[in-house]
């Protein structure tokens, strides 16, 4: 039910920097699967490894996608798992946000939470969220998404993971 609620909420998101949802299916081992557009150029982290690919337009696209999510009329949608691997590059070089499986919808009938560590996002996590661990499971926030945007920009410009040393 949670996945169906998430898919319903995601299907209402229409923005050039958000990966579109085509539908859902249960045709694979009776598991609910989300169907999206195929994005052939891979993720942003991989894309910028080719030195000719400028990260600046990607960071702008990511920021525009986040602004859209954070300014929804029903309340902000917090991505909660932003990093280069969760940004895909379209055929025309546009960055689109994806991996809403770890998102947190505030003020929504489809409210959901999952651990931000489930996707290994510690390197992109805001200090105030890290500081409550392991005593409690930190809840993703808009402010945390902004921190993750900065860490993703760092990742794309340096072409290395944050805190790679």
From TrEMBL:
PROSITE patterns per UniProt? PROTEIN_KINASE_DOM
The regions listed as transmembrane in this protein's record are none
Gene3D superfamilies according to UniProt: Transferase(Phosphotransferase) domain 1 (1.10.510.10)
Boundaries of every Protein kinase domain copy? 1-165
Top-level taxonomic group = Eukaryota
Sorted alphabetically, which Pfam families does this protein's record hold? Pkinase
The UniProt GO MF terms for this protein read:
ATP binding; protein serine/threonine kinase activity
Descriptive protein name: Protein kinase domain-containing protein
Q: Which organism is it from?
A: Pisolithus tinctorius Marx 270
The organism that produces this protein has a lineage beginning with:
Eukaryota, Fungi, Dikarya, Basidiomycota, Agaricomycotina
């Amino acid at each position: 039910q949670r996945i169906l609620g998430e898919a319903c909420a995601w299907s209402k998101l229409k923005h050039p920097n958000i990966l579109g949802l085509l539908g859902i299916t249960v045709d694979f081992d009776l598991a609910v699967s989300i169907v999206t557009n195929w994005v052939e150029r891979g993720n942003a982290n991989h894309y910028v490894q080719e030195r000719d690919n400028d990260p600046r337009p990607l960071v702008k696209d990511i920021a525009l996608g986040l602004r859209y999510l954070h300014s929804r009329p029903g309340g902000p949608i917090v991505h909660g798992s932003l990093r280069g691997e969760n940004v895909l590059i379209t055929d025309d070089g546009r960055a689109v946000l994806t991996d809403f499986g770890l998102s947190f919808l505030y003020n929504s009938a489809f409210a959901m939470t999952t651990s931000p560590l489930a996707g290994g996002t510690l390197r992109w996590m805001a200090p105030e969220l890290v500081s409550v661990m392991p005593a409690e499971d930190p809840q993703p926030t808009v402010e945390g998404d902004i921190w993750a945007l900065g860490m993703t920009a760092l990742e794309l410009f340096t072409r290395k993971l944050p805190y790679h040393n």
